[in-house]
């Protein structure tokens, strides 16, 4: 598990659900494809990936969404996503 918190910069447009999986796989030291049952819970068991992606996607006019964060627990990590798309694990 991560010590002191890890972050992933998602300034390049990546679906937020994919960014979360990547951050956790990096922290665990495994490829993203290996984050699967029975060792790891599926992301969709803790949060709706499509809703998460939509929440952080640009508005229909291309503008950014207003500030805010989302926090949830996934694979033993407290995952916090900032409005700029940064993923923090603790």
Automatic annotation (TrEMBL):
Positions of the Halobacterial output domain: 15-88
Pfam families associated with the record: HalOD1 (PF18545)
Domain of life: Archaea
Protein's UniProt name: Halobacterial output domain-containing protein
Species: Halostagnicola larsenii XH-48
UniProt lineage: Archaea, Methanobacteriati, Methanobacteriota, Stenosarchaea group, Halobacteria
């Amino acid at each position: 598990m991560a010590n002191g918190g890890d972050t992933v910069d998602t300034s390049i447009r990546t679906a937020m659900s994919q960014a979360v999986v990547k951050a956790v796989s990096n922290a665990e030291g495994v490829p993203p494809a290996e984050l699967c049952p029975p060792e790891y819970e599926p992301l969709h068991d803790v949060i709706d990936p499509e809703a998460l992606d939509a929440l952080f996607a640009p508005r229909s006019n291309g503008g950014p969404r207003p500030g805010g964060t989302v926090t949830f627990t996934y694979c033993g990590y407290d995952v916090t996503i900032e409005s700029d798309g940064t993923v923090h694990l603790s």
